[in-house]
Design a protein that fits this description.
Layout: H1 11-27, E1 31-34, E2 39-43, E3 58-60, H2 64-73, E4 76-78, H3 85-101, E5 110-114, H4 120-128, E6 133-135, H5 143-157
Parallel strand pairs: 3-4, 4-5, 5-6
Antiparallel strand pairs: 1-2
Length: 158
């Protein structure tokens, strides 16, 4: 991390300021930011992003600190699917509570889950919980492996 200019103890505070600063640049004609780690006076940046108000900022991970950060300054949450549906859904309830406490409508935070292998029960629970998307894995292999897997996924999703 230090090789890339980030000190381990302050990495999340730096990330927060960088995200907030980018949102200023993306959404304001004249942006300025004066934080602890990110500082700039008025600047102009064009072209502006096509996505409005700006490209979505997704944060991956689990746990109370991640959920707090998502509720405070991110647009979406991307938990790792290895945690399993029970853990993800419990944390989703906590994320929605955190968002409400932060004065945000929880419905404005998208949720994407890495689905692993298709599991009808988990997918049904995700749908009922209004999770926005489940990402299914594809191997880095040739078409002889990937195309049958896509067919299997298509059958599963029908």
């Amino acid at each position: 991390m230090e090789h890339h200019g980030a000190a381990f103890p302050t990495r999340f505070r730096v990330m927060r300021e960088r995200v907030l600063a980018m949102k200023e640049i993306w959404t304001k004609e004249e942006a300025e930011f004066h934080g602890e780690f990110v500082r700039f006076d008025r600047l102009w940046s064009y072209p502006k992003p096509v996505q409005k108000p700006h490209p979505p900022v997704l944060l991956g991970g689990e746990g109370p600190h991640t959920l707090r950060r998502v509720a405070e300054f991110c647009d979406g949450w991307f938990p790792r699917g290895r945690a399993g549906a029970d853990a993800i859904l419990a944390q989703l309830a906590e994320l929605r509570e955190q968002a409400t406490r932060a004065g945000r409508d929880p419905r404005t935070i998208s949720v994407s889950v890495f689905g692993g292998q298709p599991d009808r029960s988990a997918f049904d629970r995700y749908r009922a919980a209004r999770i926005d998307r489940v990402v299914l894995p594809l191997p880095s292999q040739g078409r002889e492996h990937v195309l049958p897997l896509l067919d299997k996924y298509a059958d599963f999703l029908r």
